[in-house]
Structures are given as C-alpha cells and as structure tokens.
Amino acid sequence: MGNYNSNLIKNPSSPINSMAKVLITPIYETESIALAINRFSIERVFLLVSKKTDDKQQDAVKYIKEHYEKIIEVKEKKTELYDIVETTHQVKEIIDTLSLTDEIYLNISTGRRTQAMGVLFAGYKRPARIKKIFYVTEDTKEVITIPILSFDVTETQQKILENIEDIDKISELSTEIEFSKAMVYRALKELKDKGLIEENEKGHKLTQAGKIAKM
User: Fold this and answer.
1) Would you say residue 150 has pLDDT above 60?
2) For 19-48, what is each residue's pLDDT tens digit?
3) Which of 87, 97, 116, 153 sits at a 20 to 30 Å CA gap from 53?
C-alpha cells in the first residue's frame, strides 16, 4: 500500500471511509504492537512517536515499518512525551478523523506511562468509538482487556469546566452559564469530588483530568 496519505482521512470518497480495523498505539517496543496487528487483523496503525525520540524508539518504528508497511497502512504521529492532556487531544483528533464504521483498538502496553494514559483518556472521551482498549503483559504476553469508561459529566458540570478558570466568582459564573447558584455550588462540589477541579489561594483551576473532561 505504500506510505499512508493523511489527506485520505478527510476525503469522504476515500477507501478510509469503508470499515477498517485501526490500531492507535505509543511505541517503544514492538512485541505488543506486532501481537495486536496479527491477533486483531489490523489494517491501519497510528504510531505515537515522541517529539524528542531516541535510538530505541526509532529502531522500533523502523521494525514496524519494515515488517508491516507493505501490507497495512502505517502512520506516525508526533506527541509530547510527558504531556498527558496534549497526547489525549491528539489521539482524540485521530479518532475523530476516522470513519464511523472503523473498529478502533487502543494499545496502552508500550511507550511512556504518560503517553499510555493519554491514549486511555482519549478512549474515555470517545467511548462509543472504541472497539477495545488492551494491555499486553510483559511475561506471558496475555492480552488484558481494559474497561471502556467515560468522563461522565452533566451539562452544568461541562459548562463549569469550560468557564471556571475565567470566571471564578459563583454569582458571575451562575449568570454566565444560566444555572442557579445552588446548582452551580452542587455541580462544583461534584467536580471537586471527581478530581476534575481543585481550589487553592488563587481560586479554582482544572486538574489534568479536568482539562481532558473539558475537551
């Protein structure tokens, strides 16, 4: 098939809009990726490569391309190594460009933990789009299926997430999002309990998870 053409993603008449099995994965070692490609009959792979890569990661990318690029589509996506929110956003963008008929598999077995968490959280932002999230054990190579959860927030909570860092006063926030102060107080407490918002001497701010839930 040759190299992956990113323009195909946006072209409605392109074959990418027919059903395909797609793997999105960080890469640092190749075993879990090769196992997934073979076990799930993967047809397209997105490799999340650190912007500051090293020889081991480059060797892993080279291995996957040499062994699979002639039979499946392989695409690299540069990501920040330790920015969970940015990785989540980038993976979510990949998911959103794929056909609604595609089966999407997320591998959290390889790469840095921050990248794996970004992949996981992107799945939680788009749970209806995900076929499977999995982890491959290092010793037995067992494929463990990870539950597909979601960032379950109400309309009030979503509006608070979108505005709380700009409007910290409850009365002003209540007016802006058009919910009563009682509802805002209750929703704000629930967001704190979920770990999506925290408060310090400067006011309220979104946690890393809160920034992801806001997307």
Assistant:
1) yes
2) 999 999 999 999 999 999 999 999 999 999
3) 97
Pairing assessment for the beta strands 103-107 and 130-136 based on DSSP bridges: parallel
Cα dihedral sign, 181-166-81-37: positive
Residue whose tokens read 């709380």: 164
Residue 86 CB partners (closer than 8 Å, separation 6+) = 79, 80, 118
The dihedral formed by the CA atoms of 109, 111, 117 and 121, expressed in degrees to the nearest 10:
-80
**What pTM value is reported for the model?**
0.84
Residue extent(s) of CATH 3.40.50.10770 domains in the chain: 6-146
According to CATH, where is 1.10.10.10 located in the chain?
155-214
Half-sphere exposure of 49 (CA within 13 A, CB side): 20
* DSSP string over 116-154: HHHHHHHHHHSGGGEEEEEEE-TTT--EEEEP-------
Q: Would you say domain 6-146 falls under CATH 3.40.50.10770? A: yes
User: How is domain 155-214 classified at the CATH fold level?
Assistant: Arc Repressor Mutant, subunit A (1.10.10)
Collapsed DSSP state (helix, strand, coil) of residue 63: helix
